[in-house]
Amino acid sequence: MSILLQVLTLIGALGMFLYGMTLMSEGLQKTAGDKLRSFLASMTSNSFKRVLTGLGVTALVQSSSATTIMVVSFVNAGLLTLGNAIGVIMGANIGTTLTAWVTALGFSVDISVFSVPLMALGFVLCTSKKQKNKSIGEFVVGFAIMFLGLSFMKNSAGALLDNKDAMLSFFSHFTGFGFWSQIIFLLAGTILTIVLQASSATMAITMLLATSGLIDFPLACAMVLGENIGTTITANMAAAVGNTSAKRTARAHTVFNVFGVFWVLVVFKPFLSLVGIIMEALGFYNPLTVDLTAPGASSSLLYGISMLHTLFNITNTLILIWFTPQIEKIVTWMVKAPKGEEVFRLKYISAGPLSTAELSLQEAQQEMVHFAEICRNGFGYLRQAVNEQNKEKFDVLNEKLVKYEEITDRIEYEIAQYLNEVSRNEISAEAADRIRSMYKIIKEMESLGDSGEAIGRILTRKNVHGKVFDKSLLDRLNKMMDLVQKGYDIMVENLKNPDLTDISNAVNAEYNIDECRRYLREEHIVNIESNSYNYLTGVYYIDVLNELEKIGDFLINISEAAVTKDED
């Protein structure tokens, strides 16, 4: 029973470590917010910057998976090219090695003594009314919980070592096969990382096994290599419902790590010898020959594992950075572009929100621009329907208007569902404002589809009653539709502007639409009084005119909702 309790304590300690790591990462991401996103999207002009960007962001958020998912999402949203993304992912792999050093430090030095005071500080920060202070408090509490978890892991492992002979006997079943033993532990590291969805947890377990003497340094290094393969699964899962470029980006991460593991296995012994030489040069024991009973032996082993992880990722990046175009070709071959893309589906939003709300909203913003372009395309069919005199051709166009109304309903619902998921998380006041604006924008866009279908119904009734818009009426309607078309173009332009503060273009467009409608209505009254055209024809004409004016109102509402508020 005591052994079972110790095992459960070890599992609980691992859970505490994972939770602390997640909390710390999310706190940092919330603190950085949009700055992280803009930094990641902009610092990609050359290979050095791309690698440095991936390194910096991952070192900051302490999660290569978070960085890689961000990269996949940005490629999905068209903010990064595939080539740029590959460089950032290479840097993320280097950045994640910092986590290994932090974990090693937690094992070799008892930082947990500061955990409880840090929790007190974190609690004070979390009670602040300022969102930024709350996010920093979340980071501090996460940091404390992570090291507390590491401390419990060490203590519970120490208790389990009372049964060390039994555990050594278990591991001995897998350690006597030479090179194949390394492959077995490599696969174990891969599977463990896939199951735990955290390479940092696998690293902590590997260090625990090594310092306990249950596995030797080469087998620990094999587990670290496996962890590098397992960590690519997260990005591939995120890209599963993304576009072709997103899938290729995730595959590039896999190609990069699998190729790196392959060449290291080819030169495994010399590579480990190099790690040993570096460690001795730094004043530590050689982890290949260290006696665990010697003072400071555990630290040498821990830092040796971290050095292997760092050296692997830096060397792999230095080799493959020159072959980025070739990696692009490989993943392009692996992920074929579909012959017939679905036209009306969410194009940029992936499987679900990113790890923080602030980093999810860019996807929603890109999706709204896509939504706006679909609405503008629908207006093109509306113009054709107004001008079409042939009944059969009109019926085809009217079916398109009905279809576009259904499309706008569906896209509004799917974006709203996504925003609902984002808003369930703890979000900043700025993010909450942006989400409210987005709800209003997609509602107004859905209304654009309703107006298109409404005009289609008016035109259908006109045709049923045998009425026809003559050239003079069509000229007037086309004049109005030219102004509405300008309004659509301005709406798309404004939504594409992330720093929109001036919407005078939209205000002027809406004013011109209102003035045109007012002039045409006054002209219509005069024409009805003078019997210039049939009264019922005039009714249908003015109904279409009124719906076009409504569209102008929806367009200005969208630009008003999209205006970026000045920060305090």
Q: Could you provide a short overview of the structure?
A:
It contains 23 helices and no strands.
Secondary-structure blueprint of this entry?
Elements: H1 2-32, H2 34-42, H3 47-61, H4 64-76, H5 82-95, H6 97-108, H7 115-126, H8 131-160, H9 164-172, H10 179-196, H11 199-211, H12 217-230, H13 232-239, H14 244-266, H15 268-281, H16 297-320, H17 324-334, H18 357-387, H19 391-424, H20 429-464, H21 471-495, H22 504-529, H23 535-562
Helix pairs in contact: 1-8, 1-11, 3-5, 4-5, 4-13, 4-14, 5-14, 5-16, 5-17, 6-11, 6-16, 7-8, 10-11, 10-12, 11-12, 12-14, 12-16, 13-14, 14-16, 14-17, 15-16, 18-19, 18-20, 18-21, 19-20, 20-23, 21-22, 21-23, 22-23
What would you note in describing this structure?
By secondary structure, the protein is mainly α. It has 2 domains: 2-334, no CATH class; 357-562, Methane Monooxygenase Hydroxylase, Chain G, domain 1. The chain has 23 helices and no strands. It has helices at residues 2-32, 34-42, 47-61, 64-76, 82-95, 97-108, 115-126, 131-160, 164-172, 179-196, 199-211, 217-230, 232-239, 244-266, 268-281, 297-320, 324-334, 357-387, 391-424, 429-464, 471-495, 504-529, 535-562. It is elongated and about 110 Å long.
Summed up, the helix count is: 23
Order of SSEs: HHHHHHHHHHHHHHHHHHHHHHH
Ranges where pLDDT stays below 50 over 5 or more residues in a row are: 340-344
Structural class category: mainly alpha
Distance between the termini: 59 Å
The percentage helix is over 70%
Per the principal axes of the C-alpha atoms, what is the gross shape? elongated
Largest sheet: none
Number of domains: 2
Instruction: Report strand %.
Output: under 5%
Overall residue-averaged pLDDT value: 79
Cα radius of gyration in angstroms = 31 Å
Oligomer: single chain
The count of DSSP E runs of length 2 or more, i.e. the number of strands, is 0
